[in-house]
Amino acid sequence: MDISKMDISKIKELIGLMTQNDLSEIELKDDKQGISIKRGYAGGQPLVQYAPAPMQAHAGGAAATAQAPAAPAAAPAQPAASGPAIESPMVGTCYLAPNPDAASFVKIGQSVTPDTVVCLIEAMKVFNEIKAEKAGVVEQILVKNGQAVEFGQKLFAIRT
Prior knowledge:
Elements: H1 8-20, E1 25-29, E2 34-38, H2 44-50, H3 52-59, H4 70-80, E3 85-87, E4 92-95, E5 111-112, E6 117-123, E7 126-131, E8 136-141, E9 147-149, E10 154-159
Antiparallel strand pairs: 1-2, 3-10, 4-6, 4-9, 5-8, 6-7, 8-10
């Protein structure tokens, strides 16, 4: 397409409409010519919307009381895990059973060895088996099935 044949004022008008209506792309075509204009994405915009959710859930239950799933799970995890614990090696979604109809990997009072699978953490559509990595007895389960977890978050309290 030969841009010199286009009316520059029309292009400026299209750009103005894109800005006013917060459009990232516009394409117009007719029998004789066409134009496609794309604005660069504001890279910070999606991150600003995504980042506060994990930070609020991690900061503590009081700041995130409006978020029902995160607040109750985050509050008990802090005081309960005073002794040895199995911690999350990654950020993701924790599953306490291999599938919704199956029994949990471990129960309170169950003995575990370093090779015992205690849960799955899904990260980027990949399910990762999390092993106890220490021997002991499960004293407390500090997360709920399907809960988002952070790196280093305590998942299970263990008595050695």
